[in-house]
Amino acid sequence: MIDHGTSLSALEIKSGQTISKDYFRGLEFWNRLAGETAGHSWLVYGGDNRQIRSNVTALPWHEIDPDQIVNQNNVQVDMENT
Fold first, then answer.
1. Alpha carbon separation from 11 to 32, 43, 79 (Å, rounded)
2. Bigger pLDDT: 59 or 53?
3. Which parts of the chain fold into alpha helices (H)?
4. How many domains are there within the chain?
5. Per residue in 7-34, pLDDT tens?
6. What percent of the chain is modeled with pLDDT above 70?
7. Which SS3 state, helix, strand or coil, does residue 15 take?
8. Measuring CA to CA, how many Å separate 15 from each of 18, 22, 75?
């Protein structure tokens, strides 16, 4: 969990290289539970492609940028690298 003061962002780490919809189950559950207090959620995994699904960014482990994760107002995906 990352506390932004007015919202909480969830971060989950998976070791697999292929994204499965099961990877998003816990984060989607969190987003439903947290409601309006849920910030953007992050899934770090062992693959190579960045993706956004609902309110979750799937991020390859080698692209982790703490500034981007902590500053949820700058959530962006570089479509050239997806």
1. 15, 6, 21
2. 59
3. 25-34, 66-70
4. 1
5. 888 999 999 999 998 999 999 999 899 8
6. 87
7. coil
8. 9, 13, 23
